[in-house]
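REQUEST ID: PR-0412
SUBMITTED BY: lab tech R.K.
PRIORITY: routine
TASK: structure prediction, single protein chain
INPUT:
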Amino acid sequence: MKKKLTLIKVGGQIVEEPETLKALLADFSKIEGCKVLVHGGGRAATRIASQLGIESKMVNGRRVTDAPMLDVVTMVYGGLVNKKIVAGLQSLGVNALGLTGADMNYMRSDKRPVKEVDYGFVGDVKKVNSDLLADLISKGIVPVLAPLTHDGKGNMLNTNADTIAGEAAKALAMHFDVTLMFCFEKKGVLRDANDEESVIPLITKADFEKYVADGTVQGGMIPKLENAFDALQSGVKEVIITRSDEIGKNSGTTIVG
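STATUS: complete
OUTPUT:
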């Protein structure tokens, strides 16, 4: 029988708000059993880039990672944000270890090919070393995964944090019963974007297609839900989308494959 593992992904907005992050880490520390934390950091990267005089370029809500911005996200995601989270967890008695995909070669990507848009140094995940992650977890270590991978040729690549979470969850499903939880600033997937209480408690694949067609689900929530369904089809036991302060309260939106 597999052990239960909870993998939580937190967005860049949460990471940028000290009190919200502190509360999240406290809640995360109380989760029993095996666990993994994946974090974003886009807002911090934009802020630091601005301070350094580096322009942040976005296309369709996605960051274009040119060479100067790659330096920024490597510093911010792999350094500033990741180590702030690791230090916070260590203060709560959680034996956290911060990782990028290059560390111990745990996640390798290919640079995204240029199509309609050249996103620059952005990685599409090709391989996850699930045995390595499972071994760390079995030793009582809590991996904290930054949204960075590598190409195996000496280059770092910026990689979407939702993708990191989904790929890690799928890989770890071979070893654990995985619950994947996406935490962001809303209580879940909302029927009405202006009504925080209009949480849709359950979404099936058919529901998802209907909500996309009628505009209920749009923007960044579409790839988040696509990642969720992909994870379920690849062996992840449960996917939940909720707000960071709702962890452990049986709330939010549960995705059903």
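NOTES: The chain has a mean pLDDT of 94.
REVIEWED BY: pending
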